[in-house]
Amino acid sequence: MDNWLEALPKADLHLHLDGCVKPSTLLQLAADRGYPLPADRAEDLLPYMQVDADCDSLKTYLDKFSFVLPLLQDAASLKRVAEEAVEQSAARNCLYIEVRFAPALHINAGLTPEAAIDAVLDGLKQGEAAYGTVARLIVICMRHQNEEINLPVIRGAIARQGQGVVAVDLAGDEASHPAEKFRGTFAAAREAGIPITIHAGEAAGSFNVREAVEGLGATRIGHGIRLREDPELLAWIRERRIPLELCPTSNIQTKAVADWDDYPIRSYYDAGLYVTVNTDNPTVSGTDMTRECEAIATRFSFTPAELADLMRGALLAAFAEPPVKELLLARFDELVGRLTTDVSRED
């Protein structure tokens, strides 16, 4: 099973750029910029970059990002970590990834949001050329920032639609900043026709999921774990085939659910909800796509056929351009067909 999980072609639709920075890269960025770090070996940086078993909330989880952000304030660093995000995903047989980041968190040293987006796009394109994984960008607005900051971010994303940017998102402290506060900001995205995915139903109630769809125009939901609190809404989301970007390891760590026994992925899948499996933040969570697949196979008895179904569903839910999506699906079917044939021969 382990070899099969590694070989399974995958798609990661929910992957944060600043959550997958390699410790060794952070060391090099710090050395190049004369920035002091509390350790001089990559392994000794992990406690500052990765959560442990004591993580008690989404807020605690998000604190890890403040450690890396000071070193992601110029075009060269953003380009490098974007390329490495593709490299790391390719190593886990990801055919396709959607990397997301918030440009307004990377402008403290003089970059504009537009320049930050361009740097990440350059890195993703370089990574795609080098490693073969198709990579697209989702641009994030932050909940703790106002419309004056977020609207230029939306406009920068809209201007780059078709050039690698495929959607916009809203992330951050959901409990303190409910989705309805951002109707005006995302109205511009809706008018421009750029796809929208919203972090909702993770650290606050299911009402944020409804608002994300009805008020902000989301066609996918980041996490959506707390959807089960409202059976009527759950049925509404199921009927509309709105994909949920579940991130199992992260959802446990942020206490979106109490523990693995309470995690709803099996019940959601069996009930016909459109679920996908993603990493969220590989470095912060200590995970990758193979580990996520292994976790749900081990804990919830997902079969190889069901795992392949989840990955194919993720490709169908992707915001990639239709011709690219068609090629990805054809490649996926080819690879899974070979994998199934190889397993049958071994049996």
Would you mind describing this structure in some detail?
With 347 residues, the protein is of the alpha/beta class. The protein has one domain: Metal-dependent hydrolases (TIM Barrel). The chain has 17 helices and 8 strands. Strands 1-2-3-4-5-6-7-8 form an 8-stranded parallel sheet. The protein is globular, with a radius of gyration of 19 Å. It starts with a helix and ends with a helix.
The CATH architecture category equals Alpha-Beta Barrel
Strand content: 5-15%
Overall outline: globular
At the first level of CATH, the class is Alpha Beta
Considering the protein shown, what is the CATH homologous superfamily? Metal-dependent hydrolases
Q: Return the domain count.
A: 1
Instruction: State the strand order across the main sheet.
Output: 1-2-3-4-5-6-7-8
- End-to-end span in angstroms? 13 Å
Which stretches of 5+ consecutive residues score pLDDT under 50? Answer: none
Helical stretch count?
17
Task: Estimate the helix proportion, in percent.
Answer: 40-55%
Major beta sheet summary: 8 strands, parallel
Based on DSSP secondary structure assignment, what is the total number of beta strands?
8
What is the CA-based Rg, rounded? Answer: 19 Å
SSE pattern, N- to C-terminal: HEHHHHHEHEHEHEHEHEHHEHHHH
Mean pLDDT across residues? 94
By CATH, the topology is: TIM Barrel
- Overall structural class, as computed from helix and strand content, comes to alpha/beta
